[in-house]
Amino acid sequence: MAAKKEIKEIYSSLKNEINHHNFLYHNKDQPEITDVEYDQLFQKLLKLEDEYLFLDKSDSPSSRVGDTPQSDLKEFIHEVPMLSLDNAFESEDLYDFEKKVFNKIKKQKLNYSCEPKIDGVAVSLIYEKGKFIKAGTRGDGEQGEDISHNVKTIKQIPLTLNGNNHPKKIEIRGEIYCEKTAFDKFNKEYLKTDEKKFANPRNFVAGSIRQLNPEIAASRPLKIQLHSLGYVDQKNFFKSHQEMLKTFLSWNLPINPDAKLVGSIEEVLSYCEKLTNKRETLNYEIDGVVIKIDDVSIQKELGFSSRSPKWSIAKKFKAEEGTTEVLSVNFQMGRTGSLTPVATLKPVKLGGVTISNATLHNMDEVERLDIRIGDFVKIKRAGDVIPKVIKVEKNKRKNKNRKIIQPTHCPSCSRPISFFEGLTPNLDLSKLNNDDRSCYGYSQFKENLKHFVSRQAMDIDGLGSKTIDQMVDKGIIKSVKDLYLLEKENFKELDGFAEKSINKLLSSINNSKSIKLSNFLYALGIKEIGLETSKNLSRKFSKIENIFSASVDDFISVDDIGEVASANLYAFFSDKHNIKFLDEMINLGFDLKAEQVISHISKLADKKIAITGKLSSISRNKLKSKLEDQGVKVVSSISKNTDYVIVGSDAGSKLKKAEALNIEIIKDENLDSFLMQNEN
Ligand code: IVH
To answer: How far is the CA of 196 from the centre of ligand 1 (A)?
Structure first.
């Protein structure tokens, strides 16, 4: 048998060889060997790893195929906050930006680095001594989620940086995205098996990188470009942004090929114009240009506001507009029983996306626009939002163009529209006493159920729209109450459920029983009752039983609630069927928590507290919400007005600042006793 040292050398050179071919294939689009030859090298690597357990596999190309699912996404603390960018829409905004900068610094001439603003999902990569350590999402800017297992499957990312001039620790930021052609191809295939499509490449990426099972990310065509710096442990490591981009490239990290240095705002504007013209031809979506002052010493002088760097700005593209013809107008019955007119349009391409529908919102809008079938209309699309009709080209109108008339009956179930007015949400099919599968009896129940489980409502994870449709169609769920009676057996008839996902779903359903009263009230889907109003209701009534017995006047006395909302609430909670049904449901073991009335009894009320570092016993989000319940203002940056700083492990610059300002520091291990002491 060869000596250990020799095997290690063979292994290391094989890793390098595979990494080199990965780079040529994924970053350069210039493979030098065939797929078969690549597979042979890879098999050789796997065999060595299998045979010799002493080999260090942490940076092996085999560790990126995505085979170990996570049980939960771990926290990812950002060493330096992951901020956003200020937006400019007009050229004037760019001149204003420059003027502000000139007022602050001595120079009157600046170089700007311009680059496409990729419409992807932000990511932060940590490398230590050139080795990939982990990757995280933006989250709230201070704390995101660890998505290393998925990011490692993106073959463009080197697990070991090329070259040798690497800092001890560096946080490099960029955007994960998906090319338009790859997205269309994936979506077409996906539709065949899942009867579902991803709305756009960005949603697709966002959904892929937060998966627990890395096999999913590994099977999806994800790409990355790096564009900025989070943290680096050496002062003045990069002198300019351009130098940084060049260094990234020399480390084999992909950057945008259209990044360019220019010497004035006029040149920035001309770059923006050129990129606007090029936009259609790019194989990835962009939504503007990011402009950065190139000189790092000037960046440092300008610093950051709480939201964004003062040395950078994003010039957003204008919303796209186009003209097309209205083919027909259909009315859709919504969850709350209102009809929405939707125009079917002759398909037209706006910014690379084919538009064939536009919402007309309601009949008031139809009348305001005076829109008719056959009219030519100007439509506008901004970002992800559903396109809007902004104007009717009246000069192109023909006499035969027909007016739009609000239907008197529901287009799907033929009930008179008046039937839906004043209707309370349908959460229980047995209320109908028949097998009615029309929209009220059926589709509305499904839509209510989807709303009931949604994030801001009962927050039940793992029940997608398709599963809900199936469960209702198969009669497994006939009322929201049935969710709480589900057993493993029920999943036999459903597609796509394995033991693990069933357990997860059942535990998520069970956990939802101790959700806040406000989320529960919001989940009921009563017309006009949004989350904020639900919080006010919860503060006022504390218990669901008190709501059952409330009068219209009791409801009106709640903040934010007017006559219509109060009538809707009263109608819902005085309906005998609803009371009985909710009563039965709550008796299944619900423990709904009332919103804390922010009182000054807690000693911490009105105090300003910052949290930094990783805490051992509680997640930062949970601690934040716990503190906020006591009236604490949780702040993200530290100033002399901060009362306490709660410090976990790996705390960075905030701890130093707190010490410098003499702010009381609460260490992780003392957190429980600190919270207890301050309880009322
Ligand atoms: S630089 C402090 N460069 O757009 C933020 N960001 O809307 C510095 N983005 O948070 C970021 N392309 O996630 C930068 N070429 C680019 C970008 C880019 C897309 C994203 C990024 C940023 C967001 C702001």
So the answer is: 30
pLDDT per position as a tens digit, 31-71: 888 878 888 899 899 999 989 999 988 888 888 876 676 76
Asked which of 203-212, 225-234, 413-422, 515-524 is least confident by mean pLDDT, the reply is: 413-422
Residue 351's nearest CA partner among 119, 85, 128, 678 is 119
In the prediction, which pLDDT does 1 show? 57
Does the model's pTM come out above 0.70?
no
Closest atom of ligand 1 to 121 CA is 13
Question: Which residues are catalytically annotated?
Answer: 117
pLDDT in tens, 67-91: 676 767 898 999 899 998 998 988 9
Question: Residues of the chain with pLDDT > 90: what percent?
Answer: 56
CATH number of 608-677: 3.40.50.10190
Give the integer Cα–Cα distance in Å for 380 and 385. 10
- Residue 82 CA: which ligand 1 atom is closest? 2
Q: In angstroms, rounded to a whole number, what is the distance separating the alpha carbons of residues 523 and 351?
A: 36
Does 3.40.50.720 match the CATH number of domain 320-403? no
Question: What number does the ligand 1 atom closest to the CA of 117 have?
Answer: 12
pLDDT for the residue 598: 55
Burial of 227 (0-12, 13-18, 19+ CB in 10 A): buried
Among 503, 541, 505, 537, CA closest to 523: 537
Q: Can you give 170-201 as a three-state secondary structure string?
A: EEEEEEEECCHHHHHHHHHHHHHHHCCCCCCH
SS (H, E, C) 550-614: CCHHHHHCCCCCCHHHHHHHHHHHHCHHHHHHHHHHHCCCCCCECCCCCCCCCCCCCCEEEEECE
In the chain, where are the structural domains located?
Answer: 2-64, 87-316, 320-403, 417-512, 515-593, 608-677
pLDDT digits (tens, 9 = 90+) for 312-345: 999 988 777 889 999 999 988 777 777 889 999 9
Compute, in angstroms, the gap from residue 288 CA to the centroid of ligand 1. Answer: 10
Query: What is the CATH architecture assignment of 2-64?
Result: Orthogonal Bundle (1.10)
Sign of the alpha-carbon dihedral angle for 302, 110, 230, 115: positive
CA of 295 to the centre of ligand 1 (A): 18
Instruction: Report the distance separating Cα 155 and Cα 180, nearest Å.
Output: 18
pLDDT at 113 over 70: yes
The one-character DSSP state at 251 is T
